[in-house]
Amino acid sequence: MSLTRTLSFELTPFELRTLLGEYNTHLKYLQDRLDISIVNRGNDFILTGDLTQVERAQYVLGELYELAKKSDDIAPEDLHLLIQASLARNPETTTQTHTPVSLSTRKGKITPKGHNQAEYVRNILLSDVSFGVGPAGTGKTYLAVAVAVDMLERGEIERILLVRPAVEAGEKLGFLPGDLTQKIDPYLRPLYDALYEMLGFEKVGKLLERQIIEVAPLAYMRGRTLNNSFVILDEAQNTTPEQMKMFLTRLGFGSRAVITGDTSQVDLPRGHKSGLAVALQILANIEDIHITQFSSKDVVRHHLVQKIIDAYDAYDAVESKIESERAEIRKKQRQEQELNRTLNALSFLNSIKDDKSGQGGKDGNDE
């Protein structure tokens, strides 16, 4: 069913320019994603297209209006997430509102994008141990670093520890050239990038020198107790259950830990269980531990990334089903082979018994 709807907003010329984007890029992107027509005339917007899509566009424009009133810039990822939210919501229901959470860094305020990111930040702030689980590009690591920096700047913690399992090096860092930092730099680069963006290169360098910010491979955490610290374990899907237990039991007074990872991207050798997957099962019912699950809809990257993730998930599901069927076939084949071996053994024993019986009868006749 096609529908035409007109929306009117009270906007200053500057706010209107923010809402539309440079050269109307926001409007064009919204039209392309929802496959509708949007005509802008001053503060009026004429929406034409499928009923459901028009209502989704109305929701997005309303949210863009609120953003334009508060900010002089709307990032592409903001628009992307608003469209994702519109696709996920029921047009007939009202949108739940949440008190926004902002994090302060030297480079400015960082605001979570979308419901799941806001929930994730709240969980980190409310609990001493929290998990962020889901695909890459959902902001798990970036937001954890942002909360850590915010708490460090406000004096709520004394240091930040960044930890990551160096799976590619098999945790055997002694065989790599350079000092500890040089050895693990490649594995911690995403964490460094977030720190540099929030604090600047010079500030991060000074904090590293004073060990207020510390980087360490997971293997170097054994035997330590961490007090008044904010500890981030990134790429946790590549820990073993033993390593995960070791990490979680390092937590001391005044500290909190954030564990991030994607259980669909395990790089451990075949046959090894992921410590993250095991921990999520074991700790799911502990009240003071929060787990935030992200999905492809929360990806803050090019909109094709979500489709790529969904395609791989579908492929993995099919492969898993095929492997289960193959395993069932192999199981039946083993059972049949075992049954055949048993039947052959019984047949062999019976033949021996028959031979003995025949031999005994022959001996009796000879007498």
Automatic annotation (TrEMBL):
Region: Disordered, residue numbers: 92-112
Bias (Polar residues): 92-105
An example Gene Ontology CC term for this record: cytosol
Main location as per UniProt: cytoplasm
MF-aspect GO terms: ATP binding
Keyword terms, alphabetized: ATP-binding, Coiled coil, Cytoplasm, Nucleotide-binding
Coiled-coil zones: 315-342
Subcellular location: Cytoplasm
The name this protein goes by in its record: PhoH-like protein
